[in-house]
Amino acid sequence: MNKDSHSETCLLQFRYPIFTVLALAGDDFAIVASDTRLSEGYSIHSRESPKCYKLTDTTVIGCSGFHGDCLTLTKIIDARLKMYKHANNKTMTSGAIAAMLSTILYSRRFFPYYVYNIIGGLDEEGKGAVYSFDPVGSYQRDQYKAGGSASAMLQPLLDNQIGFKNMENVQQVPLTKEKAIQLVKDVFISAAERDVYTGDALKICIVTKDGITEETIPLRKD
Amino acid sequence: MALQEVCHFYDSVPSSSEHSPVALALEGCCAEYRSAKVGHSLPVFYLPVMKSQPVCQPWKTINLSTMPSSTSSVKSFMLAEESKRPFDLSHGTTTLSFKFQGGVIAAADTRSSCAKKVECPSSQKIIPIHSHLVGTTSGTSADCTLWKRILSYKCRLYQLQNKRTLTVRGTAKLLSGALFPFKGTELCVAATLCGWDHTGPALYYVYSDGTCLEGDLFSVGSGSPYAYSILDREYHFDMSVDEAYCLARRAVYHATHRDAYSGGNVDLYHVTKEGWRKIEDRADYTSLEG
């Protein structure tokens, strides 16, 4: 009896991923975008709660999943970044942050942070990089990734438009920054139509060698 | 690398002369590094202990280097406090490896699935550990990646401390021993270690329940029965290199044809005396029909 109520208590702490995060990498830029709606069950807690967090001048992280774990994880990463800066007198690169996050997540292998992370940034050569994680720390460098509640709808669209998967006789043109931003906006507008947990506004963080710029675009509010 | 130069150890093809006591005695200048401690760089795991602990201390940490020697206490400790996960971790794969006269071949599909979704269609399931050893991964992908990372670091430390590369048999024993305290928990690592050492080509299968087997041919994962049916029919030790590549690709292809959780492309690695080499062209399945 006690054990059942104990595991039930644990389950109640988690909620399914209820917002959407997307990241894509180009030749010299990276984009991380998320909607700003925070919902739980049938209610909306906040319409202005963006999920992209700036880590360094060249790296942004988007966390989807249990919001409490997202906040704690970003605080832990910030602390570790500061420690690294003080010990080594340089900022961590995107690849190093990804590797560090993998070990942070794995240290909680038996009671994981319920967060699906996506890191977008520039690597040491200035090329765009996207690293996507699972909740226990397995990660992979990709060109694009969608995570969260509408990921099942967005990922196939990205596979088709950016990855040119399963298409014949198509010219594989590399993505320009303007086209990428337009694609992200279109993709989120579609997601907001069909996913109840996506909407309100879209926040886009664009990482280039000149720094990080942000844009906010309104989405459906219903 | 600095430590490598101080220890006078350089990566080279492992040969039986490296094991001669004369060779070891001649390099006597790094005595202080021989007894270097491994230290606390092994991961520290946090386990939830919520029932009887006060609220301000909800965690117990277990340090791998100070693990209790009896596993039953660790297991009961972990089982009692494991919380239910509301999500699934990545599973489902086909990996295979076999020895033949030209070395060791390791092949795997590239689909990484999580519950019913394909999380990643081009994941890497064969991970190099050092210049003459690759490991295939099956089971939970996070467990496999992190434990392979731990294994690479342990192998490297052994190299620097003992001035010779660990044999594949020793590496398998090391991995098996490192995973043994977690027997009975939800950790799932099913790896084959494919390498070349002073005994020639070597192949070992390590599973997180403690299995550590030597063999000529292994296939691991949800698609392994289908791969075995192809391999058992056509495998023989005296194959040529091209035949071996073709067999490995075909076995993975047939497994992905029938197993829903395997798919994507085929990754192929070939380990020889000179080291491991990735066979670059990721085969598209339409070209493997027939």
TrEMBL record, chain A:
Keyword Cytoplasm: yes
Cell location: Cytoplasm; Nucleus
GO BP annotations, alphabetical order: proteolysis involved in protein catabolic process
A Gene Ontology term for the protein's cellular component: nucleus
Superkingdom of the organism of origin: Eukaryota
Alphabetized CDD domains for the sequence: proteasome_beta_type_1
Coiled-coil ranges from the UniProt annotation: none
Pfam families (alphabetical): Proteasome (PF00227)
Record key words, sorted: Cytoplasm, Nucleus, Proteasome
Signal peptide region: none
Keyword Magnesium: no
Quaternary structure, from the entry: Component of the proteasome complex.
Function: Component of the proteasome, a multicatalytic proteinase complex which is characterized by its ability to cleave peptides with Arg, Phe, Tyr, Leu, and Glu adjacent to the leaving group at neutral or slightly basic pH. The proteasome has an ATP-dependent proteolytic activity.
Family: Belongs to the peptidase T1B family.
Name of the molecule in the record: Proteasome subunit beta
Automatic annotation (TrEMBL), chain B:
Source organism, top-level taxon: Eukaryota
Active site residues per record: T93 (nucleophile)
Keywords (A to Z) from UniProt: Cytoplasm, Hydrolase, Nucleus, Protease, Proteasome, Threonine protease, Zymogen
GO biological process: proteolysis involved in protein catabolic process
Gene Ontology CC terms, in alphabetical order: cytoplasm; nucleus; proteasome core complex
Catalytic activities: Cleavage of peptide bonds with very broad specificity
Cell location: Cytoplasm; Nucleus
GO function terms (MF aspect): threonine-type endopeptidase activity
Keyword Cytoplasm attributed: yes
A Pfam family of this chain: Proteasome
Purpose of the protein: The proteasome is a multicatalytic proteinase complex which is characterized by its ability to cleave peptides with Arg, Phe, Tyr, Leu, and Glu adjacent to the leaving group at neutral or slightly basic pH. The proteasome has an ATP-dependent proteolytic activity. This subunit is involved in antigen processing to generate class I binding peptides. Component of the proteasome, a multicatalytic proteinase complex which is characterized by its ability to cleave peptides with Arg, Phe, Tyr, Leu, and Glu adjacent to the leaving group at neutral or slightly basic pH. The proteasome has an ATP-dependent proteolytic activity.
Subunit architecture: Component of the proteasome complex.
Protein's UniProt name: Proteasome subunit beta
Annotated source species: Erpetoichthys calabaricus (Rope fish)
Gene that this polypeptide is encoded by: PSMB11
